[in-house]
Amino acid sequence: MPNTQPALLFLHGFAESRDIWTEFIQNCPPDYYILTPGFPGYGAADADAPPVADYSMEALAEFVKHELDEAGVQQAIFIGHSMGGYVALAFAEKYPARVAGLCLFHSSAQADTDEKKANRGKNISFVESHGVVKFMETFIRPLFADANEETMLPYRRQLEEIGAATPPASVVGGLQAMRDRPDRTAVLRKATFPVLFIVGKEDAAVPLAAALEQVALPPISTALFLERVGHVGFFERPEATRRAVLDFVGGIFGEQAK
Known about the structure:
One of its GO terms (cellular component) is membrane. This protein is of the alpha/beta class and 258 residues long. The chain has a single domain, classed as 3-Layer(aba) Sandwich (Rossmann fold), CATH 3.40.50.1820. It is built from ten helices and six strands; from the N terminus they run ββαβαβαααααβαβαα. The chain has helices at residues 57-71, 83-94, 114-130, 132-139, 153-164, 168-180, 185-189, 208-212, 233-236, 238-257, and strands at residues 7-11, 33-35, 76-81, 99-105, 195-200, 221-226.
């Protein structure tokens, strides 16, 4: 049966889980239908879950389609953090009519640079040699702006725990899939839906210069640039980022209702 509520789909990033959105979505209007799926293989290991055969953005986009179909949701606004944004772009490339809006939350439509691909390869080798826990000890800290190191310590610990619980096969598979994903800036240029960019000015994963190259690509776009924010603005600046998302969502659903 079709679900007629305005739907928001929150997609977590690499080595994260749906739990990253718990606080962020608490104050969402009750008339919105909220989905926070957990990607296969991520988060705490499920002994009963089948092994993941394909970690590609395209495969995860098909997983998202299944989740929407199961919920009876024909169209949603996608809010994708980091890798979640890559998945949302892969979905929008194949099923554009099902995307009412897209928020790239510290994410990018560009493919990895050669330098970043090389770094992914080094990370894969590190995980294979030293394990996931050791990897997370060095991977999580740079996601936060330096100025937030002390205040964000509980959230850093949360991300480290989520990451440490991720199976090694998923960490390696995810790194490979992100490294090999194609450039999808054409999706932004052809977008028939509004796009919101949330950009941390101190984001080492999606540098400000890369974000600036993309914000003017969609026919309709808005952007929020945040000082003293790295790659996890939903923790570092929850009020500002939540307001930006809800204003974006309200504008889209308000226009649809006219």
